[in-house]
Design brief:
The protein is of the alpha/beta class. It contains ten helices and ten strands. The protein folds into two domains: 108 residues, Enolase-like, domain 1; 148 residues, Rossmann fold (3-Layer(aba) Sandwich), CATH 3.40.50.
Amino acid sequence: MITSSVRPGSILEETLEEIQTILGSDFDSITVERVVIGIFFTGVKLSDGSGGLCFTPIKEIPEAVCCPSSARAMPYPGRFTGRSAGEFLRDLPRAPPLKKAVGIAILNALSESCWKRRPERGYIRESGRDVLDTVPLPEDGYVVVVGALVPIIRRLKARGKPFGILELDLRTLKPDELPYAVPQDKADAETRRADMLVITGTTLINNTLEPLLSLARPGASIVVVGPTASMLPDAFFRRGVTILGGDSVTSPDDLLDMIAEGGSGYHFFGKSAEKTIVRRCPVIR
């Protein structure tokens, strides 16, 4: 039997429940003001002024080959504005990829509203720092990276110790990174032996995050990172995550304009969005 903490999509469901609790009756009145589905990122602006991001899952859309079949993947073109934000969050774990990306971006925007209304008790949230550049690496411990996370892979190569990369699309890796790629039939075993896991937030889109977290050994350091994982932290930390690295949208309209023109993180971080790091507050004994 799959427990609720392992069930794919349960992080999204629990986060939505928490958002509804924090926002109360205001949740029902928040609508979508603007949506942009860009090449690299999907972004939203809500009627309360909050903005949110999600990775655009182009590779997850088998229908993206012609207009008639692609139309089924996104049912609301031209009709986003004014719709209830909650409408896009119904049955979110099982939504088709593009609709799910919009829903997660909305979830991240609503999480930002919650942070402003009620800073999360028990957590420290830092802005302007990239967890992939700053998280301490174990001197000799084995690290597994899930996804082609360039900054952490670069640091691990410089460290000169063995590590593994779980990545389905090997085209995203450089030639000197391919020797670190873990075969799919060994992925579970490598995840279980890791002293540190660094996991892309896009695993929220393909429903693989919860199963991955369930494989982590007790005491492992677990970092989940990326714009897609820019939501309230409780559901992550209940499953063993030790650091959550996301993004805070500071200027939604400027951000959406950039995404609409094919912009990536290199174009908007430090301008219309800031990287964030969330950790638990230290326990005072």
